[in-house]
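Ticket #4471: structure output looks truncated?

Reporter: J.K.
Steps to reproduce: submitted the chain below (369 residues) through the standard prediction queue, then opened the result file.
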Amino acid sequence: MQTSFKQIRLDSIAPAPDESVANHLKPVTVTEQLQPGPDELLVRIILSPIHPCDLLCAAGLVPRRSGERDGLENHQFLPGLEAVGQVTGVGSALGDDFETGQRVFVCCWAPWGTWQEANGVWSEYIVVHKDNVITVPEGVSDSTAAMFLVIPVTAYVMMIEELGLKQGDWLVQNAAGSAVGRWVITLANEMGIKTINLVRRQEQVEELKRESGAEHVLWSPSDGSQDAELKAAIKQLTGGDTVKGAFDAVGDGSFASVMLPCLSRYGTVLVYGVLSGTHMSIDFNSTCQIALEGLSIKGFSLQNWWLPDTSDEDKRRVYDAVWAHIGNNAALNPAVHSIFPFEEVGQAIRSSLEQKSGKVLLRPRKETE
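Returned output as attached by the reporter:
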């Protein structure tokens, strides 16, 4: 299929995962012969979210997603982690499994099979291997399907597969106003898991309570000035019960220093983000608790931790469970703040970095095109 279509390409590595990324991505129109191989699909992309990890990739802080790869220069490199699209071409070996018009979730990591990585997804059309897609059930919105792995599956796997949380357990998380944080709150409420949710801005406290139904929301400024008060408040809210686990999206050590003395024996602080942009430093008293109580500070990244080492049978079990939760609870649809066409990728990047409720998404073309 010889066709002209739109893409977003990484022109050069950005100096940092911040607004500067907007100056290093460019929308282009390309003309290529697009023909899926026997085990491949041709997919027309509908929507794709902008995640913090997309900015890390553009800044070269996720090596597999930046610089030269398989001989490709930066300006040939497609960014974008995940998207939802519609199948427009089916490989000769896949006729029994896929059909044109079918919606699929597309990921630059392989959600199935042996670990592999494809190019990015910020392209109007893309040819992908069958292991890089997951079929989308009827009734799931395009926007929710576009964010399937990075938000719902990540949150579910951290809660259920990694920490093994059950009804009555306590969980503490920072960055609770994020899309992942809000998904955690909603699923926890549904499953009877008790949460304490930390936010960086004081005005977010009542906002998050109102919008998410979270019972316990505490202010946790990034300068650490409230850390002593936070530790006391967490112990008071739990009524002496210990906390089984904590989710850390900031990664500067301040949250871990607060949480380690609050964890139950063998408890875990799961670090899944580095929003701080700095190194991790943990105070001495909290460090002592690691050895005394057998505690863990453990890294988690879905693409590098869970996907390569989990059987397809277990993945299917998790995917089906997450789709079912979404289908049964409308509150588990991640909120959308705004949608930009590829031509406005710079504005979309800047908008994604603003304080807001909901994700920023990209679509290949303007609605009028």
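Triage note (M.O.): checked the attachment and the full token line is present. The first strand starts at residue 2 and ends at 10.
Status: closed, working as intended.
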